[in-house]
């Protein structure tokens, strides 16, 4: 924008009075900065303007200054108070954040604790099972390993070649325990059954499933021999002599 | 821009949030600014509030004052003018809520003549020059509004302003010469 245009359009006055758009203002500011004559002109205008204003000054009542002082004092005080407010707010935020973290940790700990408790329960159950198993095994060992126990081997005949069952007989305790796992497995419709021979009569001692390690059977007094037959599933009242597969004399 | 060294020092203190610096500026300029504000709003109570608001704004915005772009008074004048115009533009809550009340801003306006009178060099100018200057410098009118107020074309109005300013300049420089002569004499 050139000097002539600025002066002719009274743009210095308008700039002084803040009547220009921001774009026009920028242009006038730039022109004043670069043009010495314009600058002098504007400075004189400002001086006259200020002087005229001072000539036409009207003194405000004294209490306006007092009010201003009070207001500023309050606002600075308020801003100081605000600092405390911010500090308090920060502490509160910190507190909530910490609480949140602690809550999360507490929740995690709780979850961990629960899972540990479950693990402990599982371990306890396993321990109980092992203990029971140990007691049972120990009893069995005592049963079959005692000095008064007689182990007897029942060799399979031609019906079940190369097979055998082992019977442990304790006459003192009147106990018979048999391990039939050495016998071949039977179809579902049949089972092994053991008999005691007392004076030529076969007395039922019980069934011999092949899937169990040790089966406790009935002890029969005065038995002369132990006999194993194959019988229909569920057992038989009388032995099927043709299906006698093994025997041992006591 | 040539500046009063005292002003520069006070303004730099004000930038550092020295309240006393604001009060010094108040002592120096409140009369000139109050003269403008009260002529614009023509209400003593309102003008007092607006003067206070103007100085609060000066306090808050002093960092945006750039001495290379003009004198402090020019900057403060613009703030006072904007504060006053904004306040006058605001819908008058009193008028809206209590239309029947007589206690509205219009009703409390002081008689015009109380504040219209001008003093100093300007009062010695022709009435139309006085009015033109008064409208744009003291009453907050834009050039466009002022020429309508005076009922003359914009071009004519602009030449009134220009002539008035030239006469003012002459008057002030004449005074300066007299003061210079007086100083030399004594």
From TrEMBL, chain A:
Keywords: Membrane, Transmembrane, Transmembrane helix. InterPro entries: Anti-sigma-K/W_factor (IPR051474), RskA_C (IPR018764). It comes from the Bacteria. The chain crosses the membrane at residues 83-103. Pfam families: RskA_C (PF10099). The keyword Membrane applies. PANTHER family: ANTI-SIGMA-K FACTOR RSKA. This is Anti-sigma factor. It comes from Croceitalea vernalis.
TrEMBL record, chain B:
Keywords: DNA-binding, Sigma factor, Transcription, Transcription regulation. Residues 25-90, 121-170 form the RNA polymerase sigma-70 region domain. It comes from Croceitalea vernalis. PANTHER family: RNA POLYMERASE ECF-TYPE SIGMA FACTO, RNA POLYMERASE SIGMA FACTOR SIGZ. The keyword Ubl conjugation does not apply. Belongs to the sigma-70 factor family. ECF subfamily. InterPro entries: RNA_pol_sigma-70-like, RNA_pol_sigma-70_dom, RNA_pol_sigma70_r2, RNA_pol_sigma70_r4, RNA_pol_sigma_r2, RNA_pol_sigma_r3/r4-like, WH-like_DNA-bd_sf. Gene3D superfamilies: 1.10.1740.10, Winged helix-like DNA-binding domain superfamily/Winged helix DNA-binding domain. It comes from the Bacteria. This is Sigma-70 family RNA polymerase sigma factor. It holds the Pfam family Sigma70_r4.
């Amino acid at each position: 924008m050139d000097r002539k245009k600025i002066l002719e359009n009274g743009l210095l006055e308008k700039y002084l009075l803040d009547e220009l758009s921001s774009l026009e203002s920028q242009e006038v500011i730039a022109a004043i900065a670069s043009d010495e004559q314009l600058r002098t002109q504007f400075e004189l205008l400002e001086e006259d303007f200020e002087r005229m204003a001072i000539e036409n000054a009207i003194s405000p009542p004294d209490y306006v200054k007092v009010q201003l002082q009070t207001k500023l004092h309050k606002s600075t005080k308020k801003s100081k108070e605000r600092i405390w407010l911010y500090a308090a707010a920060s502490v509160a935020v910190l507190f909530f954040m910490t609480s949140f973290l602690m809550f999360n940790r507490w929740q995690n700990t709780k979850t961990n604790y629960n899972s540990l408790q479950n693990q402990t329960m599982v371990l306890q159950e396993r321990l109980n099972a092992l203990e029971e198993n140990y007691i049972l095994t120990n009893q069995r060992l005592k049963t079959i390993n005692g000095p008064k126990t007689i182990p007897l081997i029942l060799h399979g005949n031609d019906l079940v070649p190369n097979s055998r069952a082992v019977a442990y007989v304790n006459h003192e305790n009147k106990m018979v325990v048999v391990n039939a796992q050495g016998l071949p497995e039977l179809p579902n419709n049949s089972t092994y059954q053991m008999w005691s021979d007392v004076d030529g009569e076969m007395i039922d001692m019980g069934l011999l499933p092949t899937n169990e390690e040790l089966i406790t059977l009935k002890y029969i007094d005065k038995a002369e021999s132990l006999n194993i037959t194959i019988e229909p599933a569920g057992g038989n009242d009388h032995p099927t002599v043709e299906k006698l597969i093994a025997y041992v004399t006591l | 821009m040539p500046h009063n060294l005292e002003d520069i020092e006070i303004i730099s203190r004000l930038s550092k949030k020295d309240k006393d610096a604001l009060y010094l500026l108040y002592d120096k300029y409140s009369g000139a600014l109050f003269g403008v504000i009260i002529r614009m709003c023509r209400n003593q109570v309102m003008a007092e509030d607006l003067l206070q608001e103007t100085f609060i704004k000066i306090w808050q915005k002093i960092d945006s004052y750039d001495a290379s772009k003009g004198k402090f008074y020019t900057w403060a004048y613009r703030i006072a003018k904007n504060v006053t115009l904004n306040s006058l533009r605001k819908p008058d809550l009193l008028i809206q809520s209590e239309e029947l009340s007589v206690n509205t801003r219009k009703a409390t306006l002081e008689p015009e003549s109380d504040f219209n009178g001008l003093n100093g060099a300007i009062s010695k100018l022709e009435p139309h020059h006085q009015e033109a200057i008064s409208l744009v410098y003291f009453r907050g009118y834009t050039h466009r509004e002022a020429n309508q107020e005076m009922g003359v074309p914009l071009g004519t109005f602009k030449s009134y302003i220009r002539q008035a300013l030239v006469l003012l300049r002459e008057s002030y420089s004449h005074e300066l010469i007299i003061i210079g002569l007086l100083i030399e004499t004594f």
